[in-house]
Amino acid sequence: MRGRGRRRLAAVAFLLPALVLLGALVVYPIGYSLQRSFFDKSGEFTGFGNYVTLFTDDTILTAIRNNAIWVVLAPTVATALGLIFAVLTERIRWGTAFKLLVFMPMAISMLAAGIIFRLVYEQDPDRGALNAVWVGVHDTFAESSAFPKAHPGRESPLKPSGDGGFVTRTTVKAGEPVALPLLGVPKKRMPDDAAPARAAAAEPGKVTGTAWQDFTLGKGVGERNAPDASESGYPGITVEAVRGGEVVDRTTAAADGTFTLSGAADGARLRLPASNFKEPYNGVDWLGPDKVLPFLGVNFVTLSVILAYVWMWAGFAMVLIAAGLAGIPRDLLEAARVDGANEWQVFRRVTVPLLAPVLAVVLVTLMINVLKIFDLVFIIAPGDVRDDANVLALQLYNSFVDRDSGVASAIAVLLFLLVVPMMAFNVRRLRREVRR
């Protein structure tokens, strides 16, 4: 009996420091947060008022909705990618190197990853890597105009056509050259093939003219509404002849801005269509509030932050699933193949069911993780759309900043209540595995 008592005392002595730390760092904060959640900002007892606020305040409701989106999308995508990577890397010679590359983001802090992706998602293609690629691909198939800022000057023969383009004030006549002067394109933005502007020569039975940049640097230099050698033509600009609302002829200008239309343009008005002045494609506003999945209420900024999270945590899922995959008896897989199953059937009917316990643990672990997500949202989401990307952990921080510790404590309790069932599920799973 004495020996057993000594062993118990020794066990208590060893456990006591851990229990003290657990009580001070976990139990006490939970109890204090629960107590504080029943008091308002001024310290007055408010009962369940703060909990009512959680489900009536629009900002907090947005945070709850975004957390639900996070819990559904992020763990599912990360686990699916981890499963795919784990299975595929078993079949390639350089699988270890690939696993290292996929897992490497786990070595980066959330803060560093947030800074990286804030730069990646910049809308300016000259700064944002993603939009640089996106705009490059877009412009390969749909090149934007070289004259997005061009417009007529004072006393110009052109006027707005109402659709973003410009049209001549009067009709044109065959054999009489037409001047289409424009302003607004900086010299450095002019096309590389632009040549000095030249006045078009008259051609019998045809309508000729010049479209050019009617501006020469220096006060009083050059003649208004007339091409000068120091001015540049508008190469490739589209010129249409319009009569009765219909286009009767169309052409594009040469490098010096000159163009020629057939006799069908006689008596028509010349129009520079809006396509000449289309703003250059500037990519996607990845960090904007626009909806990308309207039926789910997912906006671009939330989806972008989720993708950054997946980039970091897909490697974690892959490593755990690969460990589970290594424990699957190969005889079962070979037996399925001998029975005539193809690789997809082996994967779907044998591999995935045997990996179900591991997949469940990975999925639940990532769900617990995303409920506490804060760093990525705080760093990546710009200030003007941070409310659209808001999550509970960020709202908890904002409430403390606003000195409303009652609402902040209520949010903390809500997060605790959401995490506990998932933690219990994981613990039960682990105990079941140990028994086996």
Tell me about this structure.
With 436 residues, the chain is α+β, with helices and mostly antiparallel strands. The chain folds into three domains: 1-36, no CATH class; 38-133 and 287-435, MetI-like fold, CATH 1.10.3720; 158-277, no CATH class. The protein has twelve helices and ten strands. The longest helix is centred in the N-terminal third of the chain and has 35 residues, at 2-36. The model has no long low-confidence stretch (mean pLDDT 87).
Spell out the helices and strands N to C: HHHHHHEEEEEEEEEEHHHHHH
What proportion of the residues form beta strands (DSSP E)? 5-15%
What is the structural class? alpha+beta
The number of domains is 3
Q: In whole angstroms, how far apart are the ends?
A: 34 Å
What's the CATH class label of the largest domain?
Answer: Mainly Alpha
Protein name: Sugar ABC transporter permease
Membrane topology: Multi-pass membrane protein
Family: Belongs to the binding-protein-dependent transport system permease family.
Domain ABC transmembrane type-1: 64-426
